[in-house]
């Protein structure tokens, strides 16, 4: 009977996921009676529809921004292609592993002739820029005890994507990759035992993958993306109860932190559980517990629905363009 070996990373992932679910279950148990009494009126349904539209626009926009990232890596692509590819792969983030959406974009990029290094770097830069954008919005609206740690994290991320920092790291990685290629070619030559006039190795990339300039435009684009997601969250809250304009920024700020933790903490696919638990912990002083529970539940539903609609639109558009 085969044995199942769980790595420490797997234990950490399941521990975080289980802890988040336990926290949510406890919150729902305590406030279920109030949640059951919440009713959505006609105006509330219209606000939920607006939240869905805003969230869908946010996903369309961030696909466009991913095209900008490829352009900054000297791999220009049509904006519509980048958006469609992003949308049709984004839904795969809910699969176990939480990396299949990134893998899908790399494969699609290679089919278009984009180098493997540039495609891989683009899907690594994107969440880094998203994280920086979420930190920016989070630091603007909520002042917490660990504000200085969060500010330092933002500085580190912003400095890490600077070409003067990132490109030397990429050069080292390329050299290591080239040494591995030479070793593999030498082993193949020995195995064949046949001399050849061809060089023992060829460059693995036709073009070097480097960041040509600081990705300021993609960073601002991701800032707008996170802000749109936050506005969608606020629209959901407005559908359930009046929210004063002065509360909007704290809500968006708390949402940004919760969304960031769902992005970077290894847990359930798509940040399920981590986002909800963090949002409830951070925004408990902004909304009543029953309202907050309902908002995070509706947000998850609307967010997933927007991603599914975006993927369906992308696949339909690709199907229309495909020759019969």
UniProtKB/TrEMBL annotation:
<feature type="transmembrane region" description="Helical">
    <location>
        <begin position="114"/>
        <end position="139"/>
    </location>
</feature>
<feature type="transmembrane region" description="Helical">
    <location>
        <begin position="219"/>
        <end position="240"/>
    </location>
</feature>
<keyword id="KW-0812">Transmembrane</keyword>
<feature type="transmembrane region" description="Helical">
    <location>
        <begin position="290"/>
        <end position="315"/>
    </location>
</feature>
<keyword id="KW-1133">Transmembrane helix</keyword>
<protein>
    <submittedName>
        <fullName>UPF0104 family protein</fullName>
    </submittedName>
</protein>
<dbReference type="GO" id="GO:0005886">
    <property type="term" value="C:plasma membrane"/>
</dbReference>
<feature type="transmembrane region" description="Helical">
    <location>
        <begin position="260"/>
        <end position="283"/>
    </location>
</feature>
<feature type="transmembrane region" description="Helical">
    <location>
        <begin position="43"/>
        <end position="66"/>
    </location>
</feature>
<dbReference type="InterPro" id="IPR022791">
    <property type="entry name" value="L-PG_synthase/AglD"/>
</dbReference>
<keyword id="KW-0472">Membrane</keyword>
<dbReference type="Pfam" id="PF03706">
    <property type="entry name" value="LPG_synthase_TM"/>
</dbReference>
<keyword id="KW-1003">Cell membrane</keyword>
<feature type="transmembrane region" description="Helical">
    <location>
        <begin position="151"/>
        <end position="173"/>
    </location>
</feature>
């Amino acid at each position: 009977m085969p044995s199942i070996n769980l790595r420490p990373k797997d234990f950490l992932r399941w521990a975080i996921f289980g802890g988040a679910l336990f926290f949510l279950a406890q919150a729902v148990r305590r406030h279920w009676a109030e949640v059951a009494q919440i009713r959505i009126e006609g105006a509330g349904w219209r606000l939920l529809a607006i939240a869905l539209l805003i969230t869908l626009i946010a996903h369309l926009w961030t696909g466009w921004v991913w095209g900008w990232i490829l352009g900054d890596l000297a791999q220009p692509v049509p904006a519509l292609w980048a958006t469609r590819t992003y949308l049709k792969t984004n839904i795969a983030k809910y699969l176990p592993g939480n990396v299949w959406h990134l893998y899908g974009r790399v494969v699609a990029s290679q089919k278009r002739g984009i180098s493997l290094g540039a495609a891989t770097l683009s899907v690594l830069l994107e969440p880094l820029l998203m994280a920086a954008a979420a930190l920016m919005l989070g630091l603007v609206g909520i002042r917490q005890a660990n504000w200085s740690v969060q500010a330092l994290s933002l500085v580190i991320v912003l400095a890490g994507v600077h070409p003067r920092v990132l490109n030397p790291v990429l050069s080292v990685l390329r050299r290591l990759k080239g040494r591995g290629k030479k070793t593999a070619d030498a082993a193949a030559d020995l195995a064949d035992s046949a001399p050849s006039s061809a060089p023992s190795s060829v460059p693995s990339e036709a073009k070097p993958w480097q960041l040509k300039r600081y990705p300021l435009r993609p960073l601002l684009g991701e800032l707008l993306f996170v802000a749109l997601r936050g506005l969608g969250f606020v629209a959901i809250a407005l559908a359930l109860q009046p929210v004063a304009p002065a509360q909007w920024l704290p809500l968006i700020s708390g949402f940004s932190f919760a969304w960031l933790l769902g992005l970077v903490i290894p847990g359930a696919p798509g940040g399920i559980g981590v986002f909800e638990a963090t949002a409830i912990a951070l925004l408990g002083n902004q909304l009543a517990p029953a309202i907050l529970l309902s908002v995070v539940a509706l947000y998850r539903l609307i967010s997933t629905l927007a991603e599914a609609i975006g993927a369906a639109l992308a696949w339909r558009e690709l199907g229309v363009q495909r020759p019969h």
